[in-house]
């Protein structure tokens, strides 16, 4: 198979994404050339998904195309950046036009939704591997860092947590609680396979937020990155952890375990100064206050009876919860 | 193997590359944040190298690290851009510290030479695959396009052509002409495994050049891209094709075949208006005028006896030469 990288990328992907004014040279030359507005910096993130590691080899290619781009868009959201351009390095074992067409459709649909243009790529033959680099614009000085959490900040998360983890658990084991209906599984699988990057929320909370991260490895692990880089700790009210109506049906300890420790949520976790809470709440976003930043470098989990579990984040003690 | 992407990338790569003033947020957050000067645009290119396809699985990891980055730097040179930042998506079958250390050494040595900083990356487990995206700065309006060749432009190439092709041919077959010494093979292999991106030449010819491309797929194929996008043809003097002293030792037809049709040279091919030739020659660069742009969309190859071979580039007739 001699894939012509430009024609393949153009045929399936490029012509189906937005055409932006700030793309000076598009696909088809040695480089793409991009214009950054004077008042902005460029935020970039690259992620690789490998078949059999990050996704099941038989996954629906439409949802895989969606998720491959969503992962990067979620990083842009966590940084407070607005999507602009992306590149796609696609390694394929064979040229399966049906697969490729569905994969491209899932990817370009999400790209159009967020006005991000495919500006470059490479296609090679080999084991199925997808690397995507996203580029966003962020007004100078406004980027959301992990390291800027302050004492007494309130901790928020978007959406609901643990849904993707529950869907994955079902795929990987015989776990299938009788409380969950087919409708629940459709919802949970969609949360796993087609996450929604929280770009709209990110732009709205930007002026009020100290620190932010996207939850890709589980709340405790990702909040842990905020705490480590900020030199702080957190007190979390387990009762406040947002659970979907599907996860509310199952055993509470199990649901909380998914919400705290499983990955692939692609929700935002961010901190807000106490005196900005009213402004943030007034935005009426799909977000939930779940705790606050403390000085001691631990994560204190408060259960409904007020009994605390204390995790030592300096020793990467997340596994203790498992 | 649970690779921690940040610690691995930081340990082996990031701390060994330049620290640039224009990197606002370095490795370790959701995105890197980069500052583009007001007078410049950003040129980007992504390339993937797959084990067994683009390189031999047993290749020296130092040279593989060098080449993985050199391929992208060569694209920046072809665009007239100055290197600034790169990202590395590395998929590894296992964590082999000796391999990784040598790979990183080869890559960071070249990065330091060209003042390009590693600002992001992803490490995953899977079949050995290396995706690198390079980012360069190009003064607004000065980017070198493939499509800007004009009638009567003189065609130049840098360095010598076909060396990498000869080295590859030896690896892939029993071909081993008796004229070539061990020293020749050392030279030819180095040309294959450690190409030198022509960034210095690119910056010097920038003001005088209409169209440019880097030669990665063979002179005829890559010059063909210039001709197709410019709607032009070319007359090439085969006598003028620059051959290394090693390739000058072998059968001339064989040497020319490598020079015209084999890949991996990573030299520049560019066109210069006739009235700029004196200025370009005065630069005293390692470049050679090999022909000129004509209106008819063919490639005419003139041999030493003046007998032309005509290639129909509109029908992608490069294979006829093989």
TrEMBL record, chains A, B:
Gene Ontology terms for molecular function: ATP binding; magnesium ion binding; thiamine-phosphate kinase activity
Domain PurM-like N-terminal: 28-138
EC number: 2.7.4.16
Binding residue positions for Mg(2+) 2: 47, 75
Domain PurM-like C-terminal: 153-300
Positions of Mg(2+) 5 binding: 217
Highest taxon of the lineage: Bacteria
Residues engaged in binding Mg(2+) 4: 30, 45, 75
InterPro entries, sorted: PurM-like_C_dom, PurM-like_C_sf, PurM-like_N, PurM-like_N_sf, ThiL-like
Alphabetical GO biological process terms: thiamine biosynthetic process; thiamine diphosphate biosynthetic process
The keyword Magnesium is annotated on this UniProt entry: yes
CDD domains noted in UniProt: ThiL
Binding site for Mg(2+) 3: 30, 75, 214
Pfam families to which the protein is assigned, alphabetical: AIRS, AIRS_C
Binding-site residues for Mg(2+) 1, renumbered to this chain: 47, 122
PANTHER family: THIAMINE-MONOPHOSPHATE KINASE
Other facts: Reaction mechanism of ThiL seems to utilize a direct, inline transfer of the gamma-phosphate of ATP to TMP rather than a phosphorylated enzyme intermediate.
Name under which the protein is recorded: Thiamine-monophosphate kinase
Protein species of origin: Methylophaga aminisulfidivorans MP
Gene symbol of the encoding locus: thiL
